[in-house]
Design a protein that fits this description.
4 strands, about 40% helix
């Protein structure tokens, strides 16, 4: 009986080795979570980056963007202790100069967002309409605000009144009903390239002024052709002529090269020998050329 029980409970060496391996595996499985926690370090949350992400999300949802800079940094309400006052034009004034004048980061951000959306200060009183600019701020700054041509922008034109388009600055052009600062700037920029307008119709060549916009403004403008600046075609170089909107770079180069090879132009008739200039182009450019 005893030998039978002993035989039943005895194990072979192979079975013993298998049991040892099994016990080792069980021990490893049980210990693994503790070993993992010991060696693993939790990631540290960067709350600065988190705040930036929250700020960007809030901006995307239409929240108050004035609480954060474009980089996502929270804006400060602190102002310099001793502001420096100087005469300034508030349009496109650098942020650093606004800071010198005593405005906070939050106030400056609001102004820059206003400008980014096409906002423009037409007169000094417009500054006090900016959200965040206090009455004390405006009272302190008002004597130093200088907007060139601001006297022209207080009111729109009265019926029958017109603006001479070749002499008006951008501020004066904003008196035209239907013309804001952006259109005024485009008209002035195109006028400088062109040398001046010979007819009202040329306003339709300004980017954004279509037939409808032209019909809205044409009765409010007048043209003085004597104010145009003409091109001295026998003296102008390539860089000077390529700004002229009626000639392409290729045509400009042809005009300069033909002059270099054949001498000065005596009249527009000489330019007919340039193959890439047709009669239509010559008619457009002739009033702008001087052949002396």
């Amino acid at each position: 009986m005893r030998s039978r029980i002993k035989s039943y409970l005895s194990i072979t060496k192979k079975e013993w080795n298998g049991m040892v391996v099994l016990l080792i595996i069980i021990a490893v499985v049980l210990a693994a979570p503790y070993v993992y926690q010991y060696f693993r370090k939790d990631n540290v949350i960067n709350f600065k980056d988190f705040d930036k992400d929250v700020a960007l999300l809030n901006q995307a949802k239409g929240s108050d963007a004035s609480d954060y800079s474009d980089s996502g940094e929270p804006l400060s309400d602190e102002k310099v202790a001793n502001p420096v006052l100087f005469v300034f034009n508030p349009n496109n004034l650098p942020a650093e100069q606004w800071k010198q004048l005593g405005l906070s980061g939050r106030q400056i951000s609001i102004i820059k967002h206003y400008e980014a959306k096409g906002g423009h200060f037409n007169k000094k009183e417009d500054v006090q309409k900016i959200y965040g600019i206090t009455a004390d701020d405006y009272k302190r700054l008002a004597p130093y605000i200088n907007i060139p041509g601001a006297e022209y922008t207080a009111d729109k034109l009265t019926p029958g009144e017109t603006i001479e388009i070749n002499s008006a600055d951008s501020a004066k052009l904003t008196r035209i009903r239907g013309i804001g600062p952006a259109f005024a700037a485009r008209i002035v920029a195109y006028r400088q390239r062109l040398g001046g307008f010979l007819s009202k119709e040329q306003l339709k060549e300004v980017y954004g002024i279509d037939t409808i916009k032209y019909a809205e403004i044409k009765s409010q403008v007048s043209i003085n052709p004597s104010r145009i600046t003409k091109i001295k075609i026998n003296e102008v170089d390539f860089d000077g002529l390529r700004k002229f909107p009626y000639l392409t770079n290729k045509q400009t180069n042809a005009v300069i090269q033909y002059r270099n090879q054949h001498g000065n132009y005596q009249s527009v008739a000489d330019m007919k020998n340039i193959v890439i200039l047709d009669d239509g182009i010559l008619r457009k450019i002739e009033p702008y050329l001087v052949f002396k």
